[in-house]
């Protein structure tokens, strides 16, 4: 059995779970910056409070799977993205503690809301920056990172950072539309109308620019013409529906379409990078750890992931329906 | 000044991991404490337990939050600062941490929301299960991470070919020689930490003459737990000492402060030394005569082995290991004394009246945290110059990241973590100052899973909450 391929699938699964689940949490955080009414901000945070922690855990899952199954890639990519990773971690830190600290104070709650919003925004930008950096390529010599930590400050990573931030805002607005009460719901719909076309256009620009600077993407286009065309068509169809029918769609459909846009986008990126893990330099199989390590992770994941998904769904179900206006109490 | 990346990477890791461990230590202890309190509440229906639960839950929640966000940093930091370590050790410690995430982090995160906000949605029984799940999650997490760290202390079950490490036997990796003793040592340290926090806050209220019912119950519980735990901890610590002496002699040689291959006879027990590492001697040493022989060799005139038994390039820095060990050990002796005193006062019926004892408890509130930190400093600085003992040296494990980048992020971490710590401290002290909110005198509606399925539970949270808090 091709163990590295299975591990890579699990890694991709964890990253996708992270992007869509913490994506809407971060999106709500970003939108917090644009919400002037204090009571509405409280309500927005209440919409994600009971379940955010589990959503964030998927990034640890992805990071640790990379360490366990592809230690070579882990030891190349983290030094390469040293600055954005640390900025992302600090930003996620601010976002995370703000959940707990903002409710402890009424006088300084505005400040913690700003920390919450900026933390979410910076985390999203840095994640996009890292994604753009991976597609742009990493300098590798003798299996070690040999570039500069500032290689990341180039047009493609920056465009993809902004794109991801706006994409998360679409997911966050979709979630608020589903969970929040009417004033915030109107705000959420307006955000979808503004952000979803912006996200679509930026994503298109990022793709075209990436294809222009990276010959390997043009080569992929040749070999996966049909698959990539289908993905682009699907992306355009879903993003178009989202933009045009914002008012008419049911809240759950709207949110689901947001998730679908992300799923399609991630599949496209995965298709382009595969079978490498560090594009153009290290393949999945070159970076893989020995089969005993792969087996241990995969067997564990095969047994435990269904249970994790089960009780995570249960936690969502406990807090189902609209978020109570006055918060969760206690 | 030329900055050394390996020193900066080590300072950064030491700072972030030291900051982090404070919070899980509290969380592990408090989660189990909360589970015990909720069990007592369900059994006795005494509302004082609900009051204790809600009070400590709010502090637990903040500490847990800080622990989570500073913990995420660590799972990436292996690669950020120590890429070579990640590359070599990844196949062994990576899968263990992956299983930690799967079996513990998700469990804690999944049930934390229910624990914090779900009492009225799911009812007390299911809520109690959620509390237990969070507590079990913290223990599973401790078990995996101690396994990973113990493997770095006493590696086993792997083969190394050049730069590649292959796991031969997972059982040997997970149940490595030091893990069976280090895990209970850490868990009872976490429980002691929570016990002294709980007792210390209660003692403060007793001294101020406020919240008497709450204070008496928590001081009684806290000191009772602490007394049992410290007796066990001394025992576990002694076994661990023997294990580490067998597997990592330099660590224990440094911890005792002797240099010569065989110390004088009888050996004193040093409490204060000024080590001179370059000349392999102490400039000054103060200790209690005979005690070293008695404690360390269990005989009246036994000789203790010194650090010169270890070649110079494999020696840890004596000062760090020695003083970290003294702080941990000194606090353990104090805790033991308090345990004995609490038994005596309890027997005499003066546990809540003796002011000197209550003041001591107040000062001991953070003692568990300090002792745990000191213990980790013994473990980690005593393992140097190795990062994986006997396999990979710390200097060879560092990432190809320039010193300037490391320095700027180190400053970033210090600034941000200072904000986190100040906020945590200010809000915790404020919660303590405000005191526990009176819990409703009547018992909660008996809840069950069926209750969670009823639609009216969803429709009327506002009403339930407002009647509860009025």
What does this structure look like?
The complex is a heterodimer of chains A (330) and B (470). With 330 residues, chain A is an all-alpha fold. Chain A has helices spanning 3-32, 38-48, 52-69, 71-80, 82-102, 109-136, 155-179, 182-213, 215-223, 225-244, 251-273, 284-287, 291-318, and strands at residues 140-141, 144-145, 276-278, 282-283. Chain A has a two-stranded antiparallel ribbon. In chain A, helix 3 (52-69) packs across helix 4. Residues 441-470 of chain B have low confidence and may be disordered. Chain B is globular. Chain B has two domains: 5-253 and 314-469, no CATH class; 258-305, no CATH class. By secondary structure, chain B is mainly α. In chain B, a hairpin with a 3-residue loop joins strand 5 and strand 6 (392-393). Chain B is built from 16 helices and six strands.
Number of domains of chain A: 1
Q: Strands of the largest sheet of chain B, in order across it?
A: 1-2
Strand count, sense and closure of the main sheet of chain A? 2 strands, antiparallel
Integer average pLDDT of chain B = 87
Number of helical elements of chain B: 16
Which two chains have the most extensive interface, and how many residues on each? A-B, 70 and 82 residues
Outline the low-pLDDT stretches of chain A: none
Terminal Cα separation of chain A, in Å? 51 Å
The sequence of SSEs of chain A as H and E is HHHHHHEEHHHHHEEHH
CATH topology name of chain A, in short, is: Formate dehydrogenase/DMSO reductase fold
Structural domains of chain B: how many: 2
**Structural class by sheet pairing and helices of chain B:** mainly alpha
Query: Oligomeric status of the shown chains?
Result: heterodimer
CATH architecture of chain A: Up-down Bundle
Query: Count of DSSP helices of chain A?
Result: 13
Summing up helix and strand content along with how strands pair, one would put the structural category of chain A as: mainly alpha
Number of strands of chain A: 4
Using only C-alpha atoms, the radius of gyration of chain A works out to 20 Å
How many runs of DSSP E, i.e. beta strands of chain B?
6
């Amino acid at each position: 059995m091709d163990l590295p391929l299975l591990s890579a699938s699990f890694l991709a699964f964890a990253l996708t779970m992270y992007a869509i689940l913490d994506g809407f949490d971060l999106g709500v955080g970003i939108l917090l910056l644009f919400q002037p009414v204090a009571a509405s901000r409280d309500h927005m945070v209440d919409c994600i409070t009971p379940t955010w922690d589990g959503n964030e855990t998927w990034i640890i899952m992805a990071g640790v799977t990379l360490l366990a199954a592809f230690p070579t890639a882990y030891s190349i990519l983290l030094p390469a993205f040293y600055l954005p990773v640390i900025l992302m971690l600090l930003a996620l830190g601010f976002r995370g503690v703000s959940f707990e600290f903002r409710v402890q104070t009424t006088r300084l709650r505005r400040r913690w809301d700003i920390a919450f919003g900026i933390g979410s925004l910076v985390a999203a930008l840095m994640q996009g920056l890292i994604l753009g950096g991976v597609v742009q390529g990493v300098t590798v010599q003798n299996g070690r990172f040999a570039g500069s930590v500032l290689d990341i400050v180039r047009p493609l990573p920056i465009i993809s950072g902004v794109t991801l931030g706006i994409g998360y805002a679409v997911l966050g607005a979709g979630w608020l539309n589903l969970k929040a009460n009417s004033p915030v719901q109107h705000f959420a719909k307006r955000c979808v109308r503004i952000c979803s076309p912006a996200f679509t256009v930026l994503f298109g620009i990022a793709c075209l620019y990436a294809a222009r600077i990276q010959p390997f993407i043009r080569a992929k286009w040749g070999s996966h013409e049909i698959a990539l065309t289908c993905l682009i068509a699907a992306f355009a169809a879903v993003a178009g529906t989202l933009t045009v029918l914002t008012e008419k769609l049911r809240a759950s459909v709207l949110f689901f379409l947001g998730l679908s846009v992300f799923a399609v986008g991630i599949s496209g990126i995965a298709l382009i990078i595969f079978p490498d893990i560090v594009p153009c330099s290290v393949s999945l199989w070159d970076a893989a750890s020995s089969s005993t390590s792969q087996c241990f992770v995969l067997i564990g994941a095969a047994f435990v992931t269904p249970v994790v998904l089960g009780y995570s769904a249960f936690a969502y179900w406990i807090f189902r329906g609209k978020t109570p206006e006055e918060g969760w109490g206690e | 000044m030329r900055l050394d990346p390996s020193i900066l990477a080590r300072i950064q890791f030491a700072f972030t991991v030291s900051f982090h461990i404070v919070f899980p230590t509290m969380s592990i202890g408090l989660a189990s404490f909360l589970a015990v309190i909720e069990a007592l509440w369900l059994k006795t229906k005494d509302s004082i337990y609900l009051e204790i639960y809600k009070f400590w839950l709010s502090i637990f929640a903040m500490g847990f939050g800080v622990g989570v966000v500073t913990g995420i940093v660590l799972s990436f930091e292996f690669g950020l600062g120590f890429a070579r370590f990640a590359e070599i050790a990844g196949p062994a410690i990576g899968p263990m941490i992956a299983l930690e995430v799967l079996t513990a982090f998700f469990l804690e995160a999944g049930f934390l929301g229910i624990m914090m906000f779900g009492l009225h949605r799911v009812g007390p029984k299911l809520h109690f299960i959620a509390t237990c799940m969070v507590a079990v999650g913290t223990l599973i997490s401790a078990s995996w991470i101690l396994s990973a760290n113990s493997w770095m202390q006493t590696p086993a079950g792997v083969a190394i070919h050049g730069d590649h490490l292959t796991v031969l036997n997972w059982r040997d990796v997970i149940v490595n020689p030091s893990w069976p003793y280090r895990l209970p040592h850490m868990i009872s340290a976490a429980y002691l930490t929570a016990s002294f926090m709980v007792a210390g806050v209660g003692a403060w209220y007793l001294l101020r003459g406020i919240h008497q019912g709450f204070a008496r119950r928590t001081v009684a519980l806290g000191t009772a737990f602490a007394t049992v735990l410290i007796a066990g901890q001394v025992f576990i610590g002694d076994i661990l000492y023997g294990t580490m002496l067998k597997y990592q002699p330099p660590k224990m040689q440094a911890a005792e402060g002797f240099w010569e291959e065989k110390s004088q006879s009888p050996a004193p027990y040093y409490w204060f030394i000024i080590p001179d590492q370059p000349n392999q001697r102490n400039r000054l040493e103060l200790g209690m005569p005979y005690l070293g022989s008695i404690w360390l060799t269990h005989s009246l005139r036994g000789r203790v082995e010194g650090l010169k038994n270890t070649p110079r390039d494999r020696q840890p820095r004596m000062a760090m290991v020695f003083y970290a060990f003294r702080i941990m050990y000194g606090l353990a002796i104090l805790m033991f004394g308090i345990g004995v005193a609490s038994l005596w006062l309890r027997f005499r019926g003066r546990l809540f009246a003796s002011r000197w004892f209550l003041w001591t408890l107040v000062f001991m509130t953070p003692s568990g945290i300090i002792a745990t930190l000191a213990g980790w400093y013994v473990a980690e600085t005593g393992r140097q110059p190795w990062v994986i003992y006997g396999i990979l040296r710390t200097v060879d494990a560092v990432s190809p990241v320039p010193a300037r980048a490391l320095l700027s992020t180190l400053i970033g971490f210090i600034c941000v973590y200072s904000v986190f710590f100040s906020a945590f401290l200010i809000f915790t002290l404020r919660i303590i100052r405000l005191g526990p909110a009176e819990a409703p005198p009547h018992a909660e509606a008996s809840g069950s899973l069926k209750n969670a399925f009823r639609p009216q539970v969803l429709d009327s949270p506002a009403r339930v909450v407002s009647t509860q808090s009025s």
